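Exercise 7. Predict the joint structure of the components listed below.
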Amino acid sequence: MSLATLDTSQHPYLPESSSTLFSAKASQGLSFEQIAQHIGRNEVAAAAIFYGQAKASAEDIEKLSDLLGIDHELLKSQLSGFPDRGRTVEMPPKEPLIYRLYEIVQNYGYAYKAVLNEKFGDGIMSAISFSTKVEKETDADGNNWAVITLRGKWLPFSRF
Amino acid sequence: MSLATLDTSQHPYLPESSSTLFSAKASQGLSFEQIAQHIGRNEVAAAAIFYGQAKASAEDIEKLSDLLGIDHELLKSQLSGFPDRGRTVEMPPKEPLIYRLYEIVQNYGYAYKAVLNEKFGDGIMSAISFSTKVEKETDADGNNWAVITLRGKWLPFSRF
Amino acid sequence: MSLATLDTSQHPYLPESSSTLFSAKASQGLSFEQIAQHIGRNEVAAAAIFYGQAKASAEDIEKLSDLLGIDHELLKSQLSGFPDRGRTVEMPPKEPLIYRLYEIVQNYGYAYKAVLNEKFGDGIMSAISFSTKVEKETDADGNNWAVITLRGKWLPFSRF
Amino acid sequence: MSLATLDTSQHPYLPESSSTLFSAKASQGLSFEQIAQHIGRNEVAAAAIFYGQAKASAEDIEKLSDLLGIDHELLKSQLSGFPDRGRTVEMPPKEPLIYRLYEIVQNYGYAYKAVLNEKFGDGIMSAISFSTKVEKETDADGNNWAVITLRGKWLPFSRF
Amino acid sequence: MSLATLDTSQHPYLPESSSTLFSAKASQGLSFEQIAQHIGRNEVAAAAIFYGQAKASAEDIEKLSDLLGIDHELLKSQLSGFPDRGRTVEMPPKEPLIYRLYEIVQNYGYAYKAVLNEKFGDGIMSAISFSTKVEKETDADGNNWAVITLRGKWLPFSRF
Amino acid sequence: MSLATLDTSQHPYLPESSSTLFSAKASQGLSFEQIAQHIGRNEVAAAAIFYGQAKASAEDIEKLSDLLGIDHELLKSQLSGFPDRGRTVEMPPKEPLIYRLYEIVQNYGYAYKAVLNEKFGDGIMSAISFSTKVEKETDADGNNWAVITLRGKWLPFSRF
Amino acid sequence: MSLATLDTSQHPYLPESSSTLFSAKASQGLSFEQIAQHIGRNEVAAAAIFYGQAKASAEDIEKLSDLLGIDHELLKSQLSGFPDRGRTVEMPPKEPLIYRLYEIVQNYGYAYKAVLNEKFGDGIMSAISFSTKVEKETDADGNNWAVITLRGKWLPFSRF
Amino acid sequence: MSLATLDTSQHPYLPESSSTLFSAKASQGLSFEQIAQHIGRNEVAAAAIFYGQAKASAEDIEKLSDLLGIDHELLKSQLSGFPDRGRTVEMPPKEPLIYRLYEIVQNYGYAYKAVLNEKFGDGIMSAISFSTKVEKETDADGNNWAVITLRGKWLPFSRF
Amino acid sequence: MSLATLDTSQHPYLPESSSTLFSAKASQGLSFEQIAQHIGRNEVAAAAIFYGQAKASAEDIEKLSDLLGIDHELLKSQLSGFPDRGRTVEMPPKEPLIYRLYEIVQNYGYAYKAVLNEKFGDGIMSAISFSTKVEKETDADGNNWAVITLRGKWLPFSRF
Amino acid sequence: MSLATLDTSQHPYLPESSSTLFSAKASQGLSFEQIAQHIGRNEVAAAAIFYGQAKASAEDIEKLSDLLGIDHELLKSQLSGFPDRGRTVEMPPKEPLIYRLYEIVQNYGYAYKAVLNEKFGDGIMSAISFSTKVEKETDADGNNWAVITLRGKWLPFSRF
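Solution:
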């Protein structure tokens, strides 16, 4: 199995922590599944920490530095701030895998809105009070299916 | 409960069928849940037909014209072609509900890619061999949560 | 005093209700302050209903049709759906007044983020669980000052 | 409590003073609230100085170099010019917290304009003769609310 | 001498008043110089009213309807609102004359900023407390020169 | 008085001469007014040379190297080519001072065109056979006003 | 030989005169070469008048209305204003023939600048004091070659 | 006479050969006219080689290395690949000289198309089977005129 | 089998001929394969005529009007001009099928260039002296494969 | 014959492996045809690996390091991750050869869609279950033709 790596020539605007974390991950040969299990978080969240898209708690930092063999103080200083989210993907995404997700929003956006509005009223599904996961299913014919679940708190528009 | 409607002043580039379907839906007072049940499809798919984003089969057209009281020939002629997808949402989406979905792709795009690649190898989750659904959950504190599931066939890049 | 009006030549993509409401407002000669008082909402919210950016409740619709002399059924049908927000302002805004607000976000965006993060932790100020108001102050030298207050619920990023 | 930090990999176009100031802030472990109190300015203004978005007076520079332990001459030379504002946020903002502010302008822009015009006449709220502040409120249920106040001088369009 | 006219096929998003005013101007055969003299305003301001970019006072409206032979009530209703500025020029401008002005900003923008900052300190030249005029000069060789003067109040950034 | 400086972190694409000139200006503590007087040019032109937006003559180079204490050969080699104009301002400008100039073009563009066409016929005001200056006025109430004059040769479109 | 025609469905923003002129051209079956000869102008200029990109003199209008059988007063009123140039081609051009011209500018732009600067000094080739023509050559092998000549006055940048 | 030079701070994405060639040109003090004569090519083509926009043949490389005193092997290795054209000019061009060429395409694009189609039929003027040259003319009044000739093979669309 | 149709609400900028041809195709119930056979052209070329992207010869027009039962004079007048290509697809394409083709160019663009350059030298594959076809293959497992062939004349860059 | 090379000044965002591979290819003097034969893949696929657009298998890496004389461990570590596709071509492509491919999509996109839909039903041609090849043909007149074949699995939209 190949592991996801980071080539900083291609992602020059990621935080320093990304390069620290990915290069440790590569030398330890660990998958996000293994990392996620170790820190007790979902593997999408674990990967999001690596890309500077999610905040690591003090405990996360400790466990990550242990598992990945990174100097604890270094990692702490690199991860102590608040994530500056949204810097990894250039929109519209050029990467084919990510584009497919974008296309789902483009094609089904108003259908989701219509169904959500009828089910919940006037509001939005939060992307902040939010979790997500990725699962793998294999059907009877041996085909693999990816299942991504998005779960967000429903926020009704305030009346004022 | 309010129903999703279509204001053609705001969506001048939708197909003619959208205005036929939405105005019949409004006069019949039907929700997408009711429509979906009648045609035996998921309600996101039903809404996608209304927005010209999914193809209606001959049977779907028949059932829709029955349920909604639309002349069968008219609906058939308006729905007989192939959907010209992607015309409903202007990207980046300005609509707050749809923007939240876009933001999820923007923030977690590379995290999804990393996790999917490690789980499945080099490829993409299809947005064509694909289904999706929306569910409503209410937690112990009475908060509502929207759950959107995306399920797509895994397509490995061909070796050539 | 002049009243805000709507020239539909300039805003062809607003919902039909906008033109109904604004033309009734013009013939009744009512300000948003008077309209807001009548429906018991903030005047920014009242104006937002006129621009199709906020949902009117059943009671709002009744009161608006009474005050503005609009046929109740007509207004109900035009306002019954869910607002399709974000269609009024082309970004970056060309309108000088709106541009100044945009410029505040552009110039102070990261300063707000830094201060909010330090005060509240990792999260966002909701624009949905949100209210806003506009006030007028006059200083000792007779200068007028506009005061806009934005009040949003703090949403911490979920840990997952 | 975490402190806001600066990762220059992510903000390569900020002025040199930003990196001087943020790295001193990190080693001193000071919040913007503490820094603002020390220099007698609002904490948003203090943060804006750090991001190169506001001018520091000679006294500000002196106080900042004292508090943060930065060589006075160095800081003076880095802060002596005029801010080149608008370089921190890429518009539309990808950062979720900043996007919410942008969305408020996008959704309520014309409502603000209509209300401001009716209250003040033809003109704009200045973003230059302007101040802003951030406050934290906690409601009876323990929810936190962020309150941002924008206060700008009203400038009527000149008649010529 | 030719007169400036308006072809509404080319400017579909101008306010209704633009087409009323320009077509009356054409049938009366009046120049902006003549119109400006009649209403006692600068000719750039007069033209800006015609393009919906400046507010006409009650007196302006009266004088314009007299001079141009437009029904007074009609003109009053079309000009009673607040201008929705910025809708005439698509940026970057494609029109060669307007592009030259844009190019001046593009080429000399930072030179103006440097000189203005050194002369006035940290602030901006207002485009609201602002007037402008166009003059024609002919040099000794018979060449014509256009002279555009921009005069705006200097607004220093507030300290807060 | 503060002097305009250059922070090359913020302007990485300026020519090498910009950094040579600005850093000498800073160490000599000279304003553009002083520099302009020394080389016998307008101060906007002087600043434009610093930003790589205007060509310095052989004499200008000599005088600049004398006044600023820059090695004559170095400055000559850095300024000997032809300016590659238009690289300083990103359009639309994010800098508030420069944006105000841009906004003037956006709002009054067609008004200028209409007035210029009626005064001069079909053509443009040259931005090449062109000069500009900045003046400071103070009114009776002590308010400062910036006056920018644009003077360009009128070029009629050739008949062919 | 086919003649160039105008399909107004595809060019909704051209001036009214374009549709008057092109439909008369089609019914008279005239080429631009014939039209140009009749009015004594180059055929590119003649076509530019048809697309609203060049001004027709009073004589041109008279000759065009004679040749094309258009009511003289109608044509005069439609062509009396000043061209609002730049509205025909969307940039980058999607039309393959026009794209090739655009590509020449994109590929050889700096080469032209370098050669022109060395030949003429610091300045530009005017696109206003400008004429152009199209010629057809056939080589010995029977291949056709299009030759486009651009001839513009050299304008040196003013020293100020 | 000044010579065209290259400031790599302003053109970071040009090929390495550009900087090799331009710096040799500067130290040899050669114009493109002289270089072109030496290699037996048009001076626009010579400049295009310098900007990485045209391929140098083996002989061109030899002659260039001789004339410019560049190590032959170095130049050969830097010029041996295939040009990656289109990277010099950012479109729309900000450089005033290049913008004028762009404006000619924008204004006369459809006029060229109409005239070319009527002269040659349905097809395009090739920008590949193409040559161009720049000439200088001086008229009786001593004005200089730049003449740019574009000559491309006519390619008819294939029938299939 | 469904037939491709045209919904003019979704394609307002196609030429008038598109709506004439598509509505006749729908009432005759003909596929592009049948139409192509009748006029003796490839079916992609036939469809391109319908979308205004290819020129129909006099014979094509005659055959199309016969087959589709369209008045010959009407069709001739609508198809007599030269196609204004490039107006059907908004780039980047939002339509999923067309996006896949775009993605192939985005992902393999430089690989094609490298291989073509090594095989043919410095030049391009013409998109004008060009033909294309679509074929259907079914593999042993019953999967369908689409095969698109692009065949263009190789044009070497001219030496000048 | 010239070989395709990589100038990293022009492609700063390619992965490190690109520069490793291209510089080895240059010193070995190998064409993509030779490389493709050695690793048993199509030459477009081989080139795509060089540009970071296709995944190399473990065997590919071994063979490439052998053929090109690259340290095996180095190449393995640089090629072990998953390609981050889409980063080579800036869209719309400025490179003339790649633009021609883009133009084919732009001009024939809807024609392909119509023909594919009629042949296969509602779905897309996969760009993932996909292969492509480039061939050279020489016609009777000695003209060279490039033939590019795109072969993708047909994916019907799922019914849900």
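Discussion. The CA atoms of residues 123 and 157 of chain B lie 5 Å apart.
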